[in-house]
Structures are given as C-alpha cells and as structure tokens.
Amino acid sequence: MKLTLPARQPFNFRNTVRSHGWYQMAPFDYDEDENILKYVIRLETSKVLEIQIREAPDGISVEAQKKLTTAEVNDLTKTVTWMFGLEMDFSDFYAAAKKELKLAHVVQKAYGRVLRSPTLFEDVLKTILTTNTLWSATKRMNLNLIKEFGPALAWPDRQTEKHAFPEPAEIAASSPEVLREAVRVGYRAPSIHELAVRVASGELDIESFKTSGLPTLELRKELLKIKGVGPYAAANLLLILGRGDFIPVDSWALKLVSHEWYDGEPVTPKQVEKHFEKWGEFKGLAYWFWNWKYKG
DNA sequence: GGTAGACCTGGACGC
DNA sequence: GCGTCCAGGTCTACC
Fold first, then answer.
1. Domain ranges of chain A
2. Model confidence over A24-73: pLDDT tens digits?
3. CATH 1.10.340.30: does it fit domain A120-235?
4. Percent of chain A with pLDDT over 70
5. Whole-number Å distance, CA A213 to C1' B15?
6. Whose C1' is closest to the CA of A233: which nucleotide?
7. Do domains A2-89 and A120-235 have the same CATH topology?
8. Tell me, in Å, how far CA of A7 is from C1' of B3?
9. What class does CATH assign to A2-89?
10. How far apart are CA A179 and CA A192, in angstroms?
11. How many angstroms is C1' of B11 away from CA of A127?
12. Is A116's pLDDT higher than 70?
C-alpha cells in the first residue's frame, strides 16, 4: 500500500523530521542517509504495522507492506497528516520573521512545523520523559516503556524487535511500581501512571486538546493540571500543538541565550523570556528556529 | 509570588 | 568494583 499526501507549501521533509528530538525516539526510526522516517503505528482497527514515510513532490509518500481497507487508509491519512502538520500555515510567522536577520532562513528552510506523535497522549508522556534527565536516559526510558507495554510488530514487518507505542489502558493496567522497577522512570512513575489512568478512564480527553478552541493561555492551564507537566513541558506541548506563544525554557535555552547575549554568563528564565517578548504569539517559534550563535 | 530542597537515574570520575 | 558527584524540570512546603 502506498499513498501520496500533499503539504501546504513551503514544506521541507527533512527539516520537519529533524525539527526536534522525536525522530530519535521509538517507535520513530529515522534513516538519515536515505531520508526515510519509519514509524510503528497502531491503526484504529488495532492493526500494528511499520510505515515508511518519504519526501515526495509537494508533500510526502507513505508506504506499508500490507494491504489496508479503505477505512484503514483514511485513518492512516488522517494520522500522518497530523504528525507532519501537512495543512499548517505559517505565513504570518514568515511575514513577521522577514524583518529579523536571525530568522531570515525560516522561509527557505520551511521551518515552523514540529514533528508530532499520532496521539497527544504519546507526546505528553514523551515530554514528561524529557524532564529532569539526560537525553540518553529519555530515549532509554521511552524504549523500555514501549518494550514493556507496546504490542510487537506482526509479520511480515517483524524483521526486528519493534513495538508500537502503548495505549493508555495498557499502562493504566500496570502499576507505578512496574514503571519504576522495569521501565526505570524513577520518580516519574506515579505521574505517568496517573496520566494513563485518567486518559484510559475517559476522565481526561487529552486528544481533544488537538482541536481545542481554547485560548492558548487557557490550554496551557489545562496542560499544567497534568501531574509531571510544568512550565517547560507545557510550552513544549503547546509548540507541538501549533501554539507558539510560550518558550520551553530548559537548561539548553539558558545556555543558548547566555551565549547569544551575555558572553556565556549565567542567565535566568526571565531573561530568556525578555529577549523574545516582542514576538508575541510567535515567541516559541522565534526561539525554536532562531539562528543561534552557540551550536553546542 | 518567590525560593529551597527533594525527587531518581545513570554516566563520569577518582580511588 | 565501589563510592561520590553531577545534570536535568517539577512539586511541595514555606516565607
């Protein structure tokens, strides 16, 4: 099965894939040389398969080694369109960025899109795994979680040990103790379990946030109600949701701003905010795609 | 509203 | 091989 999906222009496949670290986290698997993004997806029919996403003229192509029903193709189309933000329009951001030398590259590189997981549940959980730890540990915890709770690929896709991301109910049926001992998420275990229970029980309709009409400030308040989600995580999730009003200030942001404007001297989150205040609803985007002096 | 300290893991380092 | 230190956001208690 192969389908081609158009993207609103400008669009750049590689830059969307590499917009943040998600492409390095299972069930994503990016082949840098071939520029192919693989993802182990679970369709609404519970079918688990690996898809291969490539650059195509004016958009992307999606391929699976399986025959799919019309309903499954529609489901896949909707999901991949969301993941790549194919319909997103950044013309207002580009118009604002035109006057800033440090953002002069954004149109040409088609920056603006941030790679998403199929569900916001997956994005929230992964974001919690990024907090208060090193990137290598984030990837390990995520992999442990998927291996522990996610369904394995079926043949013929199953040439390697790959799993889809677990559904809320699969984690909710477990316990914080298992999350701590087997998945090694440490003190995050109660937060992750509580999130899974709330979503699985229907108490928290987290997927509705994707299409929420709430003002960004209100949506942020809702995200902050999730245990384990603080200012950094909320800003990161808002960026994923296409709301660029907040900056995900972490230790990296402090380092970037410190080298950009303070000769490497320590800075506070308030100083980070100050430098992007004028960007208003594009604050997060301006920060994210800024052409930083410090490259790490 | 601001701040200090605890939370937990694994890598780096010294012995 | 063992012990110690450190990095990384969020939460809670306290002022």
1. 2-89, 120-235, 251-288
2. 999 999 999 999 999 999 999 999 999 999 999 999 999 998 899 999 99
3. yes
4. 98
5. 60
6. C9
7. no
8. 47
9. alpha beta
10. 8
11. 22
12. yes
